Automatic annotation (TrEMBL):
PANTHER family: SPECKLE-TYPE POZ PROTEIN. Signal peptide: none annotated. It comes from Araneus ventricosus (Orbweaver spider). Residues 168-235 form the BTB domain. PROSITE patterns: BTB. This is BTB domain-containing protein. InterPro entries: BTB/POZ_dom, SKP1/BTB/POZ_sf. It comes from the Eukaryota.
Amino acid sequence: MASCMDANAIAWITTKLHRIRWKIENFSKVAFNTKLDGPDFYLTSTCMVGLAFKKNEHDIFVYVCNKSNTEIRIQRELFFFSCNEEILHEDKDAHIFTLEKGHYINIMDRVQNRETFDILSNDALIIDLSFTMIVEIIKELHQSQNVTDPGKKLLGDFNMMKENSVNSNVCLQIGKELIPAHWSVLSSQSLYFKKMFESGMKERLQNSVILTDLSLGTAKKLIQFLYTADFVQGDDIRELFHLYSAADKYEVLELRTSCIHRIMSKATADNVWQILLFANRHDDRDFEWQAMHFIKSHSDVVFQTDGFKKFQA
């Protein structure tokens, strides 16, 4: 029996987003109480942070600065290595750090044996950091909502992930447009992205993928399908051709099947020859068979059309 509620559901999502190594040369010559600025990088497509370092006679500090427009909550794993990859210090607790815009926060616990850092091999210290973002999503649940339909709930959760860019961990670039996404979704729904995710290609390491062969509209429909198993359909059959081609290249088999079904639902005596040529170009035998079946079923009118005359030419 379905249960109903009228409340706010709070979901906490944790996503391991970024690992960075920062090598500080001439460590012994870094002046006490002088902040040394490190690299800036993106945790997500909308969340930039920067690192900084400072030391004094008794301690060492590593700072993170939030350079985005929204408050960020993170956890971190921090290691200090020598040039010989000897672990000199590690912080792996589950403490959550809240980063306000423009503020530097020290993410270091107190180091032991501070004096050992003054005699480092090659006078260099390697800071190795892994960041996990903590995202709080508040979802309003109305009394009319049926909470026992797992299929609808799952699709709703995935759609919420697509619309919420804060916890994304990869950016898809189409021209100048950036679309935040999630590696877990891309690689689970697309064999193409799965291979990229597992191969260690530069796109995986940089968490950025440039799509040069798709229009923005086609890319958005592709991404929508990856998250929701559906897409908004227009009236132009050419849009479906473009989406089928994208599904074929990026190996989204369910989307390709859906495109075939929708294309055939728009088949007419005049355009079926165009559909047949398109299916043949992609060497899709099932698609070709469906087009040929349509031609056979409507042969009395199909062979009288301008489309057939163009096909013969």
